[in-house]
Amino acid sequence: MFQRIVVGTDGSETATNALKHAAQLAALCAAELHIVSGYHPKGSLSVSGAGSGVEPWMVSSEFEVEGILRDAADIARREKVTITTHHEAGNPAKALVTIADQVDADLVVVGNRGMKGLKGKVLGSVPNEVSHHARCAVLILNTTT
């Protein structure tokens, strides 16, 4: 069914829920699992306190992202699947789509966090952007319950 599955993480609880489901699906399909984290290097931003409009992923360093990916890989390994991790500077949705294209993914798995409310509709969200730009199937999981 699926040979290469891509899932994103920022280390949050909802992203970990999506990761666990993606790993289980990869195990069922004997698929490769590609875990992706997008980040924005701290040096290229100026954050001016609360309400700045800067999303949490924008203030992660490459070092922090490597830790997040290492932890995610440890969780996914419980399902005994082949894992590759990827970190991409920039927007997480773009990172997911870029890696999905690079590895010729059959499926991208994302959580639904950020899809509710006016902010998600106006500014877009990771699941919304991925669903519009991915060239493969996209599974949006309810990870907020």
Which labels suit this protein?
145 residues; alpha/beta; globular; five-stranded parallel beta sheet; 5 helices
Description:
With 145 residues, the chain is of the alpha/beta class. The protein has one domain (4-43, 55-141): HUPs (Rossmann fold). Helices cover 41% and strands 21% of the residues. It contains five helices and five strands; from the N terminus they run E-H-E-H-E-H-E-H-H-E. The protein has helices at 13-29, 62-77, 92-102, 117-123, 126-133, and strands spanning 4-8, 32-39, 83-89, 107-111, 137-141. A five-stranded parallel beta sheet has the order 3-2-1-4-5, with helices on both faces. Helix 1 (13-29) crosses helix 2 (62-77) and helix 3 packs parallel to helix 5 (126-133). The protein is globular and about 35 Å long. The two termini are 28 Å apart.
Quick recap of the structure?
The chain has helices at 13-29, 62-77, 92-102, 117-123, 126-133, and strands at 4-8, 32-39, 83-89, 107-111, 137-141. With 145 residues, the protein is an alpha/beta fold. It has a 5-stranded parallel beta sheet, sandwiched between helices.
